[in-house]
Amino acid sequence: MVQHKIVVFIGQVWPEPDSSAAGKRILQLIELFRLWNYKIIFTSTAQENSISYDLAILEIEKVPIQLNDDSFDDFIKKSNPDVVIFDRFISEEQFGWRVSRSCPKALKILDSEDLHCLRYTRGFDLKNGVAFEPVHLFTQDWTKREIASILRCDLTLVIAEFEMELLISSFKIDPNVLFYLPILYQEKELQALSTVNDFQKRSDFVFIGNFWHEPNWDAVLYLKKTVWPLIKKELPNANLLIYGAYPSKKVFDLHNTKEGFLVVGRAEELSKVLSESKVLLAPLRFGAGIKGKLLDAMQYGLPSITTSIGAESINGAFDWSGFVADNVKEMVEKSCLLYQDEKTWLKCKDNAAVILKNRFHWQQFELPFKLKCDALLQNLETHRATNFYGLLLAHHSLKSTEYLSRWIAEKNKYNNLTEL
User: Residue 270 is part of which domain span?
Assistant: First the structure.
């Protein structure tokens, strides 16, 4: 009987690939390890909901876990994984020390999703009317926590080239503990580009984004107050449809039929929305990582108008599938041009295929990632010995997150006893 390797995913939430890029990303990592014949166990402290992906379809074991509870130690020891993947650095803070204590030989991989400290610092600078500079990252507590998490892990998956460069140049992280792995598209997914609707069969502008994600909410407000009124003035018959998971009342309050600003809510069939819309508007003023909404738009031949932050780390040296504009005047002009001029629209649509095939094709990354994981599993002790700062952060005098969690666990035990 073949003994499969075991990988345990510690998810911040249960995967929701239809509502966020993070959900799609974690499901892709699951698929990679399935292809490599790993037994997969997915855990999370969160509650599942109606839009959580049904992992049973993939025959994946699901295990609910609790914060600050020693039951996790029993679970992880029994599972005895070869690899543990932390979904964002907060999951590593919560459970990394428990994994190290119970399964010291397990390869610890952090999937950063995006650099949270970059997103938060850019947002902080925007609210304070300050132009972002990398040096601003060093003053934020989020930065210290996230970089510490990266150093404690054996490998960190980085989704954006800009963030790879930032970690190496600004934070002096050893490239050997980083691996660039963006959102990926398999050949069958890229084939959608050959069957998309043409210019004449599409209508209206569209925005898509999970409303739990602060940059998306900011972008919608920016559209409502600043950008869309100017576009609507030039194109009075056009509408802007706002889609996104988890819309609150404040989101629906923006709906105004007369203004053509239509808040729809979650897109039940994302492919249909992207195939029938004419232009995606994504005026993202802060954020990090690579923006799944822009890649999804490319997959269905939908040109976009976005900012330099929105386009960051996506197109490389290739022409954008639409236009990148950082000021309102240019954003409005390019939006109207793309919406009205079929020749321009078709050229931008064709750019999408070039970007996706050259920069996000599954086959470019699968084998290098597997070889990296295999090499680390075979030489883990040597690899760790070269990561001095990781060893330093694992030293008992710097393990504040562990001792806080252990204190809470003991407090919870005491409270449970007193209630009996």
Answer: 189-359
